Predict the 3D structure of the following.
Amino acid sequence: MSRTATGKEPVAVVGIGQTKHVAARRDVSIAGLVREAARRALDDAGLDWADIDAVVIGKAPDFFEGVMMPELYLADALGAVGKPMLRVHTAGSVGGSTALVAANLIAARVHGTVLTLAFEKQSESNAMWGLSLPVPFQQPLLAGAGGFFAPHIRAYMRRSGAPDTVGSVVAYKDRRNALKNPYAHLHEHDITLEKVQASPMLWDPVRYSETCPSSDGACAMVLTGRAGTARAPHPPAWVHGGAMRSEPTLFAGKDFVSPQAGKDCAADVYRQAGITDPRREIDAVEMYVPFSWYEPMWLENLGFAAEGEGWKLTESGATELDGDLPVNPSGGVLSTNPIGASGMIRFAEAALQVRGQAGEHQVDGARRAMGHAYGGGAQFFAMWLVGSEPPPG
Amino acid sequence: MPGLPGRRDVAVVAFAQTDHRRRSDELSEVEMLMPVLHEVLAGTGLRTGDIGFTCSGSSDYLAGRAFSFTMALDGVGAWPPISESHVEMDGAWALYEAWVKLLTGEVDTALVYAYGKTSPGEIRDVTTRQLDPYCVAPLWPDSVSLAALQARALIDAGDTDEPALAAVAARSRTAARANPHAQLSGPVPAGDYLVRPLRTGDCPPIGDGAAAVILAAGDTARRLCARPAWIRGMDHRIEAHSLGVRDLTDSPSARLAAERAGAFQQPVDTAELHAPFTSQEVVLRKALRLGDDVDVNPSGGALAANPVMAAGLIRIGEAAARIHRGASDRALAHATSGPCLQQNLVAVLEGES
C-alpha cells in the first residue's frame, strides 16, 4: 500500500471504576449508576470530565432495561455532550468489545483519552424473559441462558470424562475469591463446598450455586496513549494485544464445547503480545464463566490446558488465588453479573492485577493478565492481554 | 485535499442497498440483507473470507427480540470465524468503527452493513422508548410530535415557513425519481397535518430496507474501485438529551462534527443529509453552511426512503456512489440519531481527479 500507518499508538488503562454490584440499586437511576462508575474511573486517573475526548459505551440487549439505545439518554450523565459517543452491542462479550473499540480510538490516534463504560441494571426489567421473546420460525431460547448452555456442558463432561464435582470446585473457589473483592455482588461468608453441591439443580448439571447472579452494576475505564500515561497518578496497565472473533450461532460442525472463534481470538491476542506458552507466561486470567463448568472449558479453548485436560487444572488447585494460574481472582461472573458490564469487569480486573491495585485479591507479582469475554450462543469473543510494562517497540 | 498527515487513506469502494418498501412481510431481516451483501461483495470481487473486519448497525427494538443481529451474522457467513463487531446504532456509526479499525493498520478491508424493518411495529411508538425512561418516555411523545416541536420553533424563529418545507419535500421526491431504490418519489401531495405544522408530506415514508458498504485502505482501495470515495475526515458528536435544554433551531453537534471532519476547509458540491423531516433539512443546511450551489440529497434523502438504522449509512453510500461515477468530486455525508437530531455524524468524501 502507498502509505501505511506510522505504527499504532500504545494504549494503556489509567483509570478504573466500578460500582458495588448488587441485585437491585433502587437508590439510583440508570444515569446515576453509570455516573458513579465513570466518576470513580476519572478519580483513579486523576482526570475530570473535560479531559475526556470521547465516550464508548456498551451494554447487552436494550430489553434488559426496557430502554431503546439508552446512550442517547445517558449522554448528559457521562459528560458526553459535545463529544463523540459510540454504543457497542455484541451480546455477552460486549463489555470486552466496548473496551477494544475504545482502545482502537487511541491506537489509531483519533483521540487522546477515552472513557469507556459498560453497565446493566437488571432490576429495571427481567433479563431471562428479555431473552425469551417468542419469534416466529425461530428456535425459542426458553428459560434464558442456562437452558441454552447446560447441554454443551454435558457434552464437555462426556467428552472429557470429567468427574461431576468439578463445577462445584469452581463455584466454591470463585465465591470465596469474591469475599476478597469489595465490589463483588455475592459475599457468601458461610459458603462451603458441601453447600454448593447441595444447592438445587437448575439446569442439569448446573446447580443454583454454580450460576451467575443477576446484578445491577457498571464498570468504567479511562484509556489513553503514551503521553496520557506520563500524567497518570497510578501505574498504568498496557494493552499488549486485543481481538474479537465471531462465528454463526448454529451450523453443522459447530463445536459448542470449544468454539473455533474462541481459539482464533486467543491465538490473535497471543501473537500480538508475543505469548507462546500462555500457561507459563500469563500470571492471572479473568475469564467469563457464567456457569461454573465454563472454567475448565475455557482453559482448554484458550490454550491453558490440552483438550480434555482443563478440568484437571481446576481440580489440582492451579486456578486458585494462590495457584500458579489464578483464574477469576475477583470472584468472576459467578459472583457478579451485570450482564453488559461483565466483560468489561473481566478486562478491568485484569488491568487491576498488573497495576498491583487488586487489593485483597491481588495475585502476587502479576505482570501479564488476560481479560476474556464471550456471548451469544458461545459465538462472540473479545479478549485482551495487559501488562505492567509497555509493549516493546 | 489530502487526509491528515500520517493518517492512513481509507475509501468507500462499494455500496449496495435494497429497494425500500412499505412492507416486507415475506422476508426475515436476514433474507432482506443477503442480496445486498452479495451485491456489495460482487461489486469488488471480494469474498467474505477476504474481508478484514465486519461491523453492523441494527436495533433489537425494531426486531422485537434480543440479540437480533446474531441472525444477520449467520447470513454473512462468519465461518471460518471473522473479526466482527456491532453497534446498536445507525450503520453510519458501524462505518465509523470500521474506519477507525482500518486507521489502526490492522486490516485493509471492512464490510459494513445495516438493516431495519419498521413495518412489523408502530415506529412512532417504538422510538418513544429512546427517551429518558423516568421522566419523558412514560408520556409516549412520538417522533413526529417531537419533530413538529422543532419545526414550530424554526417557523417561530423565522427560519422557514410551511411553503418552504413543502418545497423541500417536493424537491427531494422529484430528485428521487432518478433513484430506483426510493420508496416515495415523484409528485407527492403535501397532505393533511399529521402533527402541526408538519403535514404527511413533511414526514419520511415508513419502510423496510438494508444497505452495505465496503471500505478499503490505500492501494487496496485503488485496486477494488476505479474511483474510490476517499474519506478525508469523519466525526460525530452528541448533544444533551433533554429537548428543554437545546436550541432546536440549531445543531451545534452537526456543526462541530463537520468542523472536525474538515468539511469547512473547502466547499462541497454534494451533500447527502439524513433529515427524515423537511424541517430538519433547514436546521442542517444552516449548521453545515450549505449554500444553494450545493446539490442536497440528489438521492431524495430520507424523505424518499427511511429504513431506520440503515438510512444514515445510505447517505454515506449515496455520496460515495456519486463520487464513484464521477458525478461529485467532494461530498458531505451526514447521519443522525435520537430525537430532533440529538446525535450527528459527518463524513467528507473526495474523488481523485
Q: What stands out?
A: Residues 12-127+214-231 of chain A form a domain with the Peroxisomal Thiolase; Chain A, domain 1 fold (CATH 3.40.47.10).
